[in-house]
Amino acid sequence: MANEPDEVTQAALETVSEAVELADRAERQEAALGRRGVRGRVRRVLAWRPARAEKARGIRRLNVALAAAARRGAHVTGRGVSAGGRWLSAQVLMMAPRLPVRDATTLRAQFPGLPPDELASALIDGAARASGAVGMAVGAWAVLPFLPAAGIEITTETLAVVGIEIKLVAELHEVYGQAAPGGTVDRMTAYVGSWAQRRGVGLAPGGLMLAAGSPLARQLQRRLAARAGRSIFSLGPLLTGAIAGGMINRRETRKLGRILVADLRKRSPHANGWPD
After folding, report:
1. Pairwise pLDDT comparison (29 vs 166), residue with the higher score
2. pTM of the full predicted structure?
3. What is the spatial distance between Cα 241 and Cα 10, in angstroms, rounded to a whole number?
4. What are the distances in angstroms from CA 114 to CA 111, 123, 229, 255?
5. Domain coordinates of the chain in residue numbers?
6. Whether 117 contacts 224, CB under 8 Å
7. Less CB within 10 Å around the terminal CB: N or C of the chain?
């Protein structure tokens, strides 16, 4: 296994950053407009067209990031799909330490005044928006006159969405005071294992949890293969793929976040609020 991510994986990392930024902009816009009361509804109605235009611009920027995979990674077309979960697993493990994960202090500064459960809900909402935007952007390729190879579409969407979800897993652990031990690589490898198992990390260093041939490594491969299979829905004709891809990604990311929160809260020192 190489020490650096594949070019398709590097494009997926850039896609993660663009999708997260797009979701953050949408979240800030909604917060500025207000979500409750008559005044909030009036603001949303007046801002509907500008907000829709801004979202469309964001999707176009996300398309540019995704198209980088077609330009820079054509030589690995379909490799992630044809090689099964092994290639995807290797790329995810190399991608994870490069994800921009915020620690608890940064999160509390960016979401001032929110208790742990509300902060976790905000993170889940943001991740669901980001993964949905990736699905919509990939689906939008179906209406272009020239389509990138299907293998690159599926592989890039799979890696980008998994990156968004692993980032969510890591930040939920921060919120509930259960950050994984060790250095960056060990911590992020542990969060990859948490993503695969759909529960909080144990106390073992991440590098031991995902030893080659271990049951957890095989479970990760199965999860990634299933995730790649769901990405096929984004390739539907016209805009049906964009709609289906966005809905499926949002639903699955939200489901993952809720499962993790339910598990982390059971043993969290922050379950009833932040410590003094």
Report:
1. 166
2. 0.79
3. 24
4. 6, 11, 37, 21
5. 7-266
6. no
7. C
